Structure formats: structure tokens, C-alpha cells
Amino acid sequence: MAKKTRKHSKPQMTIPLAVVAGFVPLAKDVYTGYTSYGVPGAGHYLVGGITGYDTNTGKFNLPWAASHFWLPVGAGLVVHKLAGRFGINRALSRAGIPLLRI
């Protein structure tokens, strides 16, 4: 009798929620800049939040970038990695929850 073959499924795209949540502080700042000053304000907050460069003064403010982008995204990456090691994402997949992972 022949062995039964295993079903192979194509890997599907997933969205890591912890990493996406790390972008929320930057998105909030960009939205605030847009509502207050329009597109130039949104650009100011976007550039400042990612690189730390303050376009108004021409100086770098690295704590601004760290607290509004790098630390939250880094924490999201760590949480996502830990969720993978503890098997949370595998459990979500087996439960049939499409697209979303921690």
C-alpha cells in the first residue's frame, strides 16, 4: 500500500500586528502635522520621526526618532519574534484565522 502524501499549501501573506502597531506613534504624529500644517507639516513629522532630522531648525534630534519610530517598531519586532517562538502564530494559523499574526 502506498503512503499518503502530505498536503502542501502555498504560503499566504500575513500581517504581523505587533510590528504594524509600532508604526502607530509615527502615523499619529504625521496625521497631527497634516491636520495642523498640511503636507509640509506631515513631511516634517515623517522625516523627523524616522531620521531625527528637524527640518525647521536643521539639527538632529535622535531621541525624537527613537521614541516615535525606532523603539516602538523594534519592540513590535521583538514581540512578533517571541510570539513565533512560543507558537502563538502557529496556533492562530491552525485555528483558521486568515491574514493576521502577532
Give a structural overview:
The protein is mostly helical. It has one domain (15-101). The protein contains 5 helices and 4 strands, in the order E-H-H-H-E-E-H-H-E. The protein has helices spanning 17-22, 24-37, 39-51, 62-86, 88-94; strands spanning 15-16, 53-54, 59-60, 100-101. It starts with 14 loop residues before the first strand and ends with a strand. The mean pLDDT is 91.
The best one-word shape is: elongated
| N-to-C span | 42 Å
Strand order of the largest sheet: 1-4
Q: Based on the structure, what is the oligomeric state of the protein chains?
A: single chain
Main sheet attributes: strand count, strand direction, barrel closure: 2 strands, parallel
Mean pLDDT: 91
Q: What is the structural class?
A: mainly alpha
Estimated radius of gyration: 20 Å
Instruction: State the order of secondary-structure elements, H for helix, E for strand.
Output: EHHHEEHHE
Q: How many domain units?
A: 1
Q: Give the uncertain stretches in residue-range form.
A: none
Proportion of residues in extended strands: 5-15%
Q: How many helices? A: 5
Number of strands: 4
Short description:
By secondary structure, the chain is mainly alpha-helical. It contains 5 helices and 4 strands, in the order E-H-H-H-E-E-H-H-E. It has one domain.
